[in-house]
Write a structure and sequence with these properties.
The chain has 370 residues and is α+β, with helices and mostly antiparallel strands. Helix content is 45%, strand content 16%. It contains 9 helices and 8 strands. It has helices spanning 2-23, 98-103, 108-126, 129-134, 136-151, 170-212, 215-229, 242-252, 297-324; strands spanning 24-27, 31-37, 40-41, 49-52, 58-64, 68-78, 84-95, 156-167. The strands form 3 sheets. A 3-stranded antiparallel sheet has the order 3-2-5. A hairpin with a 5-residue loop joins strand 6 and strand 7. Helix 3 runs antiparallel to helix 5. The chain starts with a helix and ends in a 46-residue tail after the last helix. The model is unreliable at 258-295 and 326-370 (pLDDT under 50).
């Protein structure tokens, strides 16, 4: 009898231990327990810690209350400005109502994932490419609202939605690169033009200061020579100083008041000294005829042509007188005219002009003796 009681006690104790083990449940801190008794929601949600249920009658389901990070697969769509893009995102959400997450939806994770993909494709179709690339914050807020509206009925709260990456076609990337390059080139040209304007103003001020002192130009030239001479791998061509050229030009001019005493005679002509009181200007440079003011080469050529023409006219006159008779011919004729309008009667004996007559002496050719 005692043995039977002992065996019954052991069996009861074993049954109690098994029942306790089946009924005892532990809910973690980040979890909540939803108890369904015979398929029906039983009371409030069980909090974290130790809890008991009726084995075989109650069913305890634990719901994770932590924030879930769910990546959204890349979705390909066409933007409002007809550009094909691939956009992927990430969704941060957590369960706020454990009972609704179990009862209202079969699998809240899968439901949130599908809703995120659908909302992302809708956002792509409503946005422009520039908004996807530069105005993502506004798109993230819109995407969060689109996902959060149905998720609230599932006991899920969307904390944040972020667009991760926007993939563009290669042709679009090249086009955008050209656009960015053109914009940077435009800005570079504007900056360069502004710099040129400022430099031109400064150069104009510097030129105004240098114009007051001509020696400043020579100093600036020497500074440039020093700067260029620092590089020994280049050939330096030094310009001739302008001031030295001006000095040589002044040196070539004849000093005022110089008068030649005789003129250069050509073939068949007589050279006579300048009479007293006659002003004859000396030649300014070699190659000029004495007594003739010539400044340029064209004037020199014109003077030579006039002299040749006078020689020709004198030769013709001599031939005419020779044809008229020997008594009208003088073997040697020296005529000095006092000017272009000189009268032969005003000439003194010997062919000399009267004292005080002005004008340059002219040379008549002497015809050859026969």
């Amino acid at each position: 009898m005692v043995e039977e009681l002992v065996v019954a006690g052991i069996a009861a104790a074993s049954g109690a231990v098994v029942y306790t083990m089946a009924a005892a449940k532990v809910v973690k801190q980040y979890e909540r327990g939803v108890v369904l008794r015979l398929g029906r929601l039983r009371g409030a949600v069980r909090g974290p810690g130790f809890t008991m249920i009726v084995p075989g009658v109650d069913r305890l389901q634990k719901v994770n209350m932590q924030v879930v990070t769910m990546p959204v697969p890349a979705q390909e769509g066409i933007t409002r400005d007809n550009v094909t893009v691939r956009v992927d995102a990430v969704v941060y959400f957590r369960v706020v109502e454990a009972a609704d997450a179990i009862i209202e939806v079969e699998d809240y994770r899968f439901a949130v994932s599908q809703m995120a993909q659908t909302s992302l494709r809708s956002i792509i179709g409503k946005s422009d490419l520039d908004d996807l690339l530069s105005n993502r914050e506004k798109l993230n807020q819109g995407l969060e609202l689109m996902i959060d509206s149905p998720a609230m009925g599932w006991g899920v709260q969307i904390d944040r939605v972020e667009i991760k990456d926007v993939s563009l076609p290669e042709a679009m990337k090249r086009s955008m690169a050209r656009q960015a390059e053109a914009d940077r080139e435009r800005r570079a040209r504007v900056i360069n033009a502004d710099a040129e304007l400022q430099a031109s103003k400064k150069l104009a001020q510097a030129a105004g200061q240098m114009s007051k002192e001509p020696a400043a130009l020579q100093l600036r030239l020497l500074q440039t020579v020093v700067a260029v001479a620092a590089e020994k791998n280049s050939t330096l061509v030094l310009p001739f100083p302008v001031e030295l050229l001006r000095f040589l030009e002044r040196a070539q001019q004849a000093p005022p008041g110089e008068q030649p005493s005789e003129r250069r005679a050509g073939a068949g002509s007589v050279v006579e000294p300048a009479p007293p009181g006659t002003s004859v200007e000396a030649p300014a440079a070699a190659g000029r005829e004495p007594g003739i003011e010539i400044d340029t080469e064209p004037e020199l050529e014109a003077a030579r042509e006039d002299e040749a023409r006078e020689v020709s006219e004198a030769q013709e006159a001599y031939e005419v007188h020779t044809a008229a008779g020997p008594e009208h011919v003088s073997k040697r004729e020296d005529v000095t005219e006092a000017g272009p309008a000189a009268d032969p009667e005003t000439l003194q004996p010997g062919g000399e002009p009267p004292a005080g007559a002005s004008g340059s002496p002219r040379v008549r050719p002497v015809p050859p003796e026969r």
